[in-house]
Amino acid sequence: MTPSPRPAVTPAPVAVAAPASAPEPAAPGAKTFDAIFDEEGTGNAPVPRVVAAAAPPPPSAPAELAVWPGTVLSAVDGEAVVRAALSGLWPEPRLRGTTERVVASLSTAEKAATLGQKLPFDPLSVRRAVGLRWQVAAALDTLPIQGAKVDQPAIQAILLGIDDVLAQLKVLSDDASPEALRSLEGVRHALVKEAIDLTEALQQILPAEVVEEITTSRKAKRAEPVAAARIVHSTPSGEGELRGLPWGLIVLLVLSVAGAAAYHGYRYVNRSRPAASVVTGAPSGTVGTVAPQGKIIVTPAGARLDPKEVENFKNLERAKGNEVREVLPGTFVVTPPNTRPEKPAGSGASQTQGARP
Asked: What is the pLDDT of residues 41-58, one digit of tens each?
């Protein structure tokens, strides 16, 4: 009679096993979050299944709503991707190809600015340029087909960002040393090339009038802040517009123009003119001189002599008994027949007969 109650206790372990299966679907989020940072893992089979099932929904939803180039990461995110890659942390395969090409094209100054190293100029504009270069490269890698819908405000935002950074780099270049100037010019040229590449890519997928509208509206938006600043800076008197003019720059410009005009006027009035040759029968355009030892005819640089005049001059001098030698192209030396160059100069009265002019 006593053994009968023992079989009734055996179902208890079966009831305990039932709730063990229930927590498996109840705690997938916690296990998935921990698995991101735990590379070794626990080896439980349910965790990988839950991760694979939960991963697809999030990227699919925003991808359907975004329009190129809104599908591309921002310039700030692009800068972060490049900084991580330079530190050895490469992005996911979808972005790795773009990142590798951008990193390979970066200059030493761009890499140093992205990593936060010390530079002889403010590295903020250079870091922004790196982010924009990555954003444009990513946009070109995901360029849609011709006729596809595009996000025009997003394109204008990229181009406006490029214009803004180019203006900042220009300001930095004004007071930069020669070494820093070369680095900044390299960054500016690379950024200008990105803007050109993006504009050419737009012409492949959009009509010409749409591309012109995008670029024209970008220039108008870039000019808006300047106009607003001038309107805010107002004075109660009627002289507000006159006071707003940069008189210092105007005076400096006037003085510069006047100085340049005076300088060039002086140069023009006192310009070198070909002196008339004192040698009879010398070719036109030459400069000549007569000495006791003979005559020297020189042709100014850039002047061309008439071969007939040169031949007539030689014949005329030979008829006088003089010897004509062309010691250099365009330089002639005429010596009388009784000239004795070996006679030392200054030995009494000169016995040489001067050449006849």
From this structure: 444 444 333 333 334 444
Rounded-to-integer distance, Cα 158 and Cα 350, Å? 87
User: pLDDT value at position 297?
Assistant: 80
Residues facing 326 on adjacent strands: 332
Burial class of residue 185, CB neighbours in 10 A (0-12, 13-18, 19+): middle
Phi, psi for residue 237 in degrees, rounded to 5: -80, 170
Tell me how many degrees the CA angle 249-229-219 measures, rounded to the nearest 5: 90
Look up residue 77 and give its two tokens: 């995110």
Q: How many CB atoms lie within 10 A of CB 130?
A: 31
The predicted structure's pLDDT at residue 124:
95
Could you tell me whether strands 294-298 and 323-328 are parallel, antiparallel, or unpaired per DSSP bridges? unpaired
Q: Would you call the peptide bond into 178 cis, given omega within 30 degrees of 0 as the criterion? A: no
Q: Give me the residue spans of the domains in the chain.
A: 27-65, 67-231, 287-300+307-333
Beta-bridged to residue 333, according to DSSP, are: 296, 325
- Block residue for tokens 């349910």: 46
Distance CA 179, CA 108 (A): 12
Report whether 303 contacts 284 (CB < 8 A): no
Report pLDDT for 252.
Answer: 64
Tokens of 307: 């071969």
Q: Which residues of the chain have pLDDT under 70?
A: 1-65, 218-254, 256-257, 263-278, 339-357
